[in-house]
């Protein structure tokens, strides 16, 4: 599970859609704790910061619409954000941004080098080779 620190405009389609799915998993865990994700580092990062997660969701949806995606049917349950969390932010350092840009470039390079295969499938495939 991962929420990138870069702008949604820097994500390719695959990472944008994947992040959107994972954001909803994370939001569900933060709103109704008790699932298997409660101790995941990304969930812990956004604990008490649902407003920041909501704004990321809205940026994702706007970017998906800008790219011509249709059919978004998963609104963020904004009514479940406690008032004291609405204006919260995640402190993003220059190092965090640099790491994310490096990771994205690496994943995209892996995918390109393997005919568009996702980076995850490439790493699974290569880890099985003797």
Annotation keywords:
5 helices; mainly alpha; about 0% strand; single chain
Please state the average pLDDT score: 90
Q: Any low-confidence stretches, pLDDT <50, length ≥5?
A: none
Describe the oligomeric state of these chains in a short phrase: single chain
Helix content: 40-55%
The helix-and-strand class reads: mainly alpha
Work out the strand percent: under 5%
Straight-line distance between termini: 29 Å
Q: Rough shape?
A: globular
How do the SSEs run, as a string of H and E?
HHHHH
For the biggest sheet, the summary is: none
Q: Give the number of DSSP strands.
A: 0
Q: Please, how many helices?
A: 5
Gyration radius, to the nearest Å?
16 Å
Describe the structure in your own words.
With 130 residues, the chain is mostly helical. The protein is 55% helix and 0% strand. It contains 5 helices and no strands. The protein has helices at 13-31, 41-46, 50-66, 94-113, 119-127. Helix 1 runs antiparallel to helix 3. The longest helix is centred in the last third of the chain and has 20 residues, at 94-113. The radius of gyration is 16 Å and the shape is globular. The mean pLDDT is 90.
Short description:
The chain has 130 residues and is mainly alpha-helical.
Helix-strand layout with pairing:
Layout: H1 13-31, H2 41-46, H3 50-66, H4 94-113, H5 119-127
Helix pairs in contact: 1-3
């Amino acid at each position: 599970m991962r929420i990138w620190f870069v702008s949604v405009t820097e994500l390719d389609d695959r990472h944008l859609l994947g992040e959107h799915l994972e954001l909803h998993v994370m939001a569900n865990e933060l709103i109704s704790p008790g699932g298997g994700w409660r101790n995941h580092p990304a969930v812990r990062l956004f604990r008490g910061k649902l407003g920041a997660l909501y704004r990321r969701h809205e940026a994702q949806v706007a970017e998906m619409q800008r790219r011509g995606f249709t059919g978004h049917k998963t609104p963020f349950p904004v009514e479940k954000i406690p008032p004291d969390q609405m204006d919260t932010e995640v402190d993003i350092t220059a190092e965090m941004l640099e790491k994310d840009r490096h990771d994205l470039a690496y994943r995209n390079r892996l995918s390109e080098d393997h005919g568009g295969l996702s980076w995850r499938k490439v790493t699974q495939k290569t880890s099985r080779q003797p």
